[in-house]
Design goal:
By secondary structure, the chain is an alpha+beta fold. It is built from 4 helices and 12 strands; from the N terminus they run ααββαβββββαβββββ. The longest helix has 17 residues, at about 45-60.
Length: about 190
């Protein structure tokens, strides 16, 4: 094993919120923190990034002046132990654009594009974490073999802090909540 292949020491110890907040953007890129431990993800495929960008652009256009939709930043689900997730798309309060870290109370909707190798995390683990954090809506996008994505929508039941199933869409997403939007994901 060469020196370049040895993981830095900080990847093998529990990370606090203060420690993570002191890291550079380079150190934070491509990692999530789950229960204080670093989780490294491979770079996403072009198809994955394209779906996330289409979703973010359509949601941003539909959300009005009170909400923004973006991709590629952390949502701090809990401080102790630290859990930072990086959803593929986040719809958040426009007034919190400069607030760091982004917290669940700033977020209306998260969307995850399921990638090969992270199916269980994207389908089960993250969904459960987002619900427990109190995020009102969650979408899961499956990259079907036909090329036409499937979008599963979930709505939070605040009493149980669990999501109930919403509608499932093939290719074109038409929803009224959290705001009216029609997104044509087409043949990706």
């Amino acid at each position: 094993m060469t020196a370049e292949m040895v993981a830095p020491a900080w990847m093998h110890q529990q990370i606090t919120a203060e420690h993570y907040d002191s890291w550079s953007e380079e150190q934070c890129a491509g990692v999530e923190i789950v229960d204080g431990m670093v989780v490294v993800s491979r770079s996403a495929a072009k198809r994955h990034n394209r779906l996330a960008r289409i979703l973010a652009n359509a949601l941003d256009a539909a959300s009005g002046p009170e909400w923004n939709a973006d991709a590629g930043f952390d949502v701090r689900l809990q401080d102790v132990p630290l859990t930072n997730r990086r959803p593929d798309v986040v719809v958040y309060r426009a007034e919190t654009i400069d607030v760091t870290p982004t917290r669940p109370e700033h977020v209306l909707l998260v969307a995850e594009v399921v990638s090969p190798g992270s199916e269980t995390t994207d389908r089960i683990v993250k969904v459960d974490q987002y619900a427990k954090a109190g995020i009102a809506f969650s979408w899961r996008v499956e990259q079907a073999a036909t090329g036409v994505p499937l979008v599963y929508t979930y709505v939070l039941d605040p009493a149980t802090r669990a999501y109930r199933d919403g509608d499932v869409f093939t290719g074109v997403v038409k929803v009224t909540a959290p705001f009216p939007v029609e997104i044509d994901l087409g043949q990706i």
